[in-house]
Structures are given as structure tokens and as C-alpha cells.
Amino acid sequence: MSMINPIYTEIREALKTDYGVVVREYYYEFPKEKSNIYLVDDSGEVIWFAEKAMPDDVYANKIFQQSPDTISCASWGGFTCTIDLKNGKLLSADFTK
After folding, report:
1. Which of 40, 35, 34 is nearest to 16 (CA)?
2. In this structure, are strands 37-40 and 70-74 parallel, antiparallel, or unpaired?
3. pLDDT (tens digit, 9 = 90+) per residue, 57-85?
4. What is the pLDDT of residues 13-35, one digit of tens each?
5. Are strands 64-67 and 11-17 parallel, antiparallel or unpaired?
6. Is the pLDDT assigned to residue 97 strictly greater than 90?
7. 51 burial level (CB within 10 Å; 0-12, 13-18, 19+)
8. Model confidence at 1, in pLDDT bands (50, 70, 90)?
9. SS3 70
10. Neighbours of 42 (CB within 10 A)
């Protein structure tokens, strides 16, 4: 696997999965129209950006792999989100704040 370079800010976390590497960049100054969690393949190409519970929300906390096919991460807006590793789609967003 090649070195992963951040797209906008700095990489706070990188989690190797069967689908590729899930990256969480620092949310401060990250473009609000994009998700700061994304999946890259072995060559470093972005496969998908994770859906967000709210358009202006950001992922602020550690990523947890819930199963071989899903991850979860809490957002700044108070949602605990479950994301499908196959496509970055939001499977659930539970308001927890």
C-alpha cells in the first residue's frame, strides 16, 4: 500500500479494512460540503466519502469497526453513525447528545 496523503487537512486516523483504508481527517477547516471520512484503495485513490447525518456536520471522534462491512463514528452534531464500508452510505444515525 502506498503512503496515504490527506486531501484537505491532516489525517487523524487510518483504519485498514477488507475494502481499503478508512481515513478520518481533522474536521477543522475541512470543507463542509464534503465528509471528512473517506475510503481509499491500495493506490491511494478515494473510493467514496461517507454520508453525513446532517449536511453541515463533521465526524469528530474515533472510528470503530462494528463488523467486517460496517464502521461507526460519532459526529460533532451528536449523531452516532453507522456507515456501510461497501459504498459509504449511512445505515443509521442515532442522536446521542
Report:
1. 40
2. unpaired
3. 999 999 999 999 999 999 999 999 999 99
4. 999 999 999 999 999 999 999 99
5. unpaired
6. no
7. middle
8. very low
9. strand
10. 9
pTM for the whole structure: 0.94
* Residue 55 to residue 35: CA distance in whole angstroms: 9
The widest CA-to-CA distance across the chain, in whole angstroms, is: 38
Phi/psi-derived region of residue 20, left when phi > 0, alpha when psi is between -120 and 50, beta in every other case: left
Residues 19, 41: Cα–Cα separation, whole Å = 8
- What is the rounded (10 degree) CA torsion for 38, 9, 65, 33? -50
Q: How confident is the model at residue 46 (pLDDT cuts 50, 70, 90)?
A: very high
Q: What angle do CA 70, 20, 11 make, to 5 degrees?
A: 95
Q: CA–CA distance from 73 to each of 2, 3, 25, 51, 69 (Å)?
A: 25, 23, 13, 12, 14
